[in-house]
Amino acid sequence: MTKHDPRLDRLFHALSDPTRRGIVERLAHGPATVSELAEPTGMALPTVMRHIAVLAEGGLVRTEKAGRARLCHAVPDPMDAARDWMEAQRAIWIARLDRMEAHILKKDLEDD
What region holds the HTH arsR-type domain (predicted)? Predict the structure, then answer.
């Protein structure tokens, strides 16, 4: 088993919720205030703030105070770790499936 990476746990947890994924997608277009992020969801500001806190714990969002508003920014770098992990897993499964296919083809040839 591979080494446990708590950063990946936090990242995947942050992305596990559709509301949080929506926030990340919105922030990909540029910074937004918490109010702007809450508006399309119909959620109360405290609920959206909790989602933003989870995204911040996952390293995907950073916030700053801008006057009376809280401005949120996307931080895309943590997604590199998720991409790298998924690509490594994909490579493992492709190799296994290729070996299985070769085995099946060999068995088919032997049976003929």
Answer: 1-103
Q: Sign of the CA dihedral 49, 50, 56, 58?
A: negative
pLDDT tens per residue, the chain (112 residues)?
567 888 999 999 999 999 999 999 999 999 999 999 999 999 999 999 999 999 999 999 999 998 999 999 999 898 898 899 889 888 888 887 877 777 777 777 777 6
Q: Which residues contact 15 (CB under 8 A, 6 or more apart)?
A: 21, 24, 58, 60, 82
- Give the domain range for residue 45: 6-111
Single out the residue of 47, 51, 3 nearest to residue 26, CA to CA.
Answer: 51
For residue 55, what are its two tokens?
């995204």
**Entry pTM:** 0.77
- The CATH number of the domain holding residue 49 is 1.10.10.10
